[in-house]
């Protein structure tokens, strides 16, 4: 497969019946070179297939998901293109963007910052849901009517926020151990003060718990699937799933929350339940025809 337009291929390897690629491109949205992984099954060489976008968590690059999750076997079996972007702009040389593992490089939180120091480059919400989304449809054999989004931790937050803010773009959403209430979590408060200043109304615009209360888009056919490990070290201070569950109940929004006994926050947890998420998205795609 030759490199699609606007993209530079960095690597490619056959895996199962398809290929795992890594590409880079110059992003006009975040003002730097961005990398992403994309698995293309053999089926996509002949026809348009569903797309799943996976958003990774804090400290991750485009490599973590494609090297640790075992996603290639499932993407091949289900016939899905699976694409995963980096988690932030890199190399922008903004003072303070690499001082803390929980903020800045590797920690863009999938928001569009409004504070002037960050607003030029830290526009990951627009990158994922406009530039990256469009790039995938343009350059790969994607069925635009069957696109889902999911993610882990910070990326689970990003997936939920993307779904609630852009309901016309996604047929399905799921998450592993998402940060459910960013505007009150310890990670979120620290990051959002920098990205948005003191206006907490701006913080709430990128908070799944807040967004579900005002969501007016189409509801999924089956409750949104969220998996959470019971032994996750970040559960109490940072993830706060009970707040999203309560907000969904008040809004009569369907959610299926599964606490998985003994599992932590790692990719061992993700790989264990990843196929359940593929099954979930597959059913949503079939129901949306």
UniProtKB/TrEMBL annotation:
It comes from Adineta steineri. GO terms for biological process: formaldehyde catabolic process. Keywords: Cytoplasm, Hydrolase, Serine esterase. Its EC number is 3.1.2.12. Serine hydrolase involved in the detoxification of formaldehyde. The keyword Hydrolase applies. The keyword Mitochondrion does not apply. This is S-formylglutathione hydrolase.
């Amino acid at each position: 497969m030759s490199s699609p337009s606007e993209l530079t291929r960095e690597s490619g390897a056959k895996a199962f019946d398809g290929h795992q690629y890594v590409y880079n491109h110059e992003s006009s949205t975040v003002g730097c070179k961005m990398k992403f992984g994309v698995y293309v099954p053999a089926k996509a060489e002949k026809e348009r297939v569903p797309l799943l976008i996976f958003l990774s968590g804090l400290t991750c690059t485009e490599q973590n998901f494609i090297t640790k999750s075992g996603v290639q076997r499932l993407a091949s079996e289900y016939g899905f293109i699976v694409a995963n972007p980096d988690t932030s702009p890199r190399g922008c040389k903004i003072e303070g963007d690499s001082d803390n593992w929980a903020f800045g490089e590797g920690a863009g939180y999938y928001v569009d910052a409004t504070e002037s120091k960050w607003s030029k480059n830290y526009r990951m919400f627009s990158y994922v849901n406009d530039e990256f989304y469009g790039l995938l449809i343009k350059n790969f054999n994607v069925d635009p009517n069957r696109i889902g989004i999911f993610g882990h931790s910070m990326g689970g937050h990003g997936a939920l926020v993307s779904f609630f803010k852009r309901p016309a773009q996604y047929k399905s959403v799921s998450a592993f151990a998402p940060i459910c209430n960013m505007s009150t979590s310890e990670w979120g408060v620290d990051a959002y003060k920098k990205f948005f200043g003191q206006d907490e109304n701006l913080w709430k615009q990128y908070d799944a718990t807040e967004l579900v209360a005002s969501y007016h888009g189409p509801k999924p056919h089956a409750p949104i699937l969220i998996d959470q490990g019971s032994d996750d070290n970040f559960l109490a201070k940072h993830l706060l799933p009970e707040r999203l569950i309560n907000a969904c109940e008040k809004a009569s929004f369907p959610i299926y929350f599964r606490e998985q006994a003994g599992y932590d926050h790692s990719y061992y947890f993700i790989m264990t339940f990843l196929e359940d998420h593929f099954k979930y998205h597959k059913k949503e795609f079939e129901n949306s025809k």
